[in-house]
Design brief:
The protein is an alpha/beta fold. The chain contains 20 helices and 14 strands.
Length: 499
């Protein structure tokens, strides 16, 4: 993707000491390279891979703090006999490992571990939770996979394996501060948000191969197109290609909205129509690439869009994933917003918000139970956990023999967060449970076709800024993603911004 010469090939060796294998991109590698050159480092190629090696030599484990990117990499230090491996902040790139009896094996896919002889044994409790609860991760332990003894390195973590001392450690290197701040009337929130998003998109356009974008017709992907158009100008945007999945004849067909965006920016667009027959035909391949279960056929649409981009020789796609979790885009967040208003005793705002949601066709079922839940968040979390437990133990389709086999593990994989404000739920879905599984589907669907997906909304500085913003900038006047809508109201057609 960056520097196509043989000098940038992997595994890459550096300073007669380090060797790296690496999956992903460091978008701010140019800025980091400049800083490292001033310190005295020299470089033999133009890749971001070599920048990681130099940064590790200088900053050691702290190097990951400086990376704006998506990555899973492992660096072997021959001198110290140590392996240092890290994964990006949100889990855009996968990292699996097996560690037992003096053997340590790792890879971006479990296929690599199986090829190395790691046993392929299904974890029955993970499968049971998937069948009864629909979960594809253990929210209490996200390192667990559907296969026994195969672990996933958690997002925002690095591992250090010291061979001489036979020591293995895992360390968290980044987290979000989820405490939002009071509203400051003189602060230009929208301007700051727009600048951070623009900077994120600009860095994610860096490539030595063709870059395009996925375009769903929704606000997130359309906003990325608007920012790209402002950065590239009219002439270059006309050669910047977009790719979409459309569903003629179905309620969820977004063709009309896609056309509004492509017409406004004179943007070339190619579309594909996924079908039920196509899903049946491709299902085995889809499962092969995903490796673990998935809960919806919606990822097939994503898979076909990536296939379409590959057919048009586009190796990098920008995508809008990640915005819903930080900007409260899903309608389920309206519950938590209303509960925050209740606990803050803002009853007038509560009545007004419910009326506005109804006007925007966002009906929220709200009653006395929600009010009680708002003031008893810990009790609510426990009640929800008990309900999930009963979904498993009282499920008539689960055999008693299997439940007996699971004795002592009935509660494994059952966890609900204590939520006292909207940011608590946004944090849970962004950092603990929800977003990472979506990123897995996207990475596998894209990599299946040799396409790299880049997500501008998952820039760390941008996400932290959004979390620090007061709630009123996330949900307001009956709309979700308020600050994004305000940022785009003069860049996109009004009927798209205020859908």
């Amino acid at each position: 993707i960056i520097d196509l010469s043989n000098a940038a090939a992997q595994p890459m060796h550096y300073a007669g000491r380090y060797s790296i294998v690496y999956n992903g991109e460091i978008y701010n590698y140019i800025e980091l390279k400049k800083d490292l050159k001033q310190i005295g480092y020299s470089f033999n190629n133009n890749s971001d891979t070599e920048v990681i090696l130099a940064a590790y030599d200088f900053y050691r484990e702290k190097c990951v703090q400086y990376f704006d990117g998506m990555f899973a990499f492992a660096i072997w230090d021959e001198q110290e006999q140590q392996l240092f491996a890290a994964r990006d902040r949100f889990g855009e790139k996968p990292f699996y490992y097996y560690s037992e009896k003096g053997l340590f094996v790792f890879g971006s896919e479990m296929k690599a571990l199986w090829a190395a002889g790691v046993p392929r044994q299904v974890d029955d409790k993970m499968m049971l939770n998937y069948l009864t609860l629909g979960t594809v991760q253990n929210p209490a332990d996200k390192s667990q996979t559907f296969f026994q003894d195969i672990s996933s390195l958690l997002p925002s973590h690095y591992l250090l394996l010291d061979v001489r001392q036979r020591r293995f450690s895992l360390t968290r290197y980044w987290n979000i501060d989820k405490q939002n701040q009071a509203f400051l009337p003189d602060k230009d929130y929208t301007g700051m948000f727009t600048q951070l998003l623009t900077d994120s998109v600009k860095k994610r356009l860096r490539s030595d191969v063709k870059v395009g974008t996925s375009l769903s017709g929704g606000l997130d992907s359309s906003s990325i197109v608007a920012v790209v158009a402002a950065l590239l100008g009219e002439e270059k945007t006309a050669s910047f290609t977009s790719f979409s999945a459309v569903f003629p004849g179905f309620e969820k067909n977004e063709e009309a909205h896609i056309k509004k965006v492509t017409d406004k920016f004179s943007l070339p667009n190619f579309s594909v129509t996924p079908t039920a027959d196509g899903l049946v035909s491709d299902f085995e391949k889809l499962c092969y690439h995903q490796e673990e279960p998935f809960p919806s056929s919606s990822i097939y649409a994503q898979y076909k869009v990536m296939e379409l981009a590959s057919a048009h020789k586009t190796k990098v796609l920008l995508d809008g994933q990640g915005a819903d979790e930080s900007l409260a885009g899903y309608h389920k967040y309206l519950h938590w917003y209303l509960q925050e208003l209740v606990t803050r005793h803002r009853y007038t705002d509560l009545r007004k918000a419910r009326k506005q949601f109804a006007q925007n066709n966002m009906n929220v079922h709200w009653g006395i139970k929600n009010i009680v839940a708002a003031f008893l968040p810990a009790h609510t979390a426990l009640t929800l956990e008990k309900r999930e437990h009963s979904y498993i133990t009282a499920n008539p389709d689960v055999s008693r023999k299997l439940l007996q086999h699971m004795k002592g593990r009935e509660w494994d994989g059952i966890h609900k967060p204590i939520v006292s404000k909207l940011n608590d739920m946004l944090y849970f879905n962004t950092m603990e449970f929800g977003l990472e599984e979506m990123l897995r589907y996207a990475d596998r669907s894209s990599m299946a076709h040799g396409v790299e997906v880049r997500l501008p909304f998952l820039n760390a500085a941008l996400v932290q800024f959004i979390f620090s913003c007061p709630t009123v900038l996330k949900i307001s006047d009956g709309f979700t993603k308020w600050i994004l809508r305000k940022s785009m109201e003069n860049r996109l057609p009004a009927e798209l911004v205020w859908r």
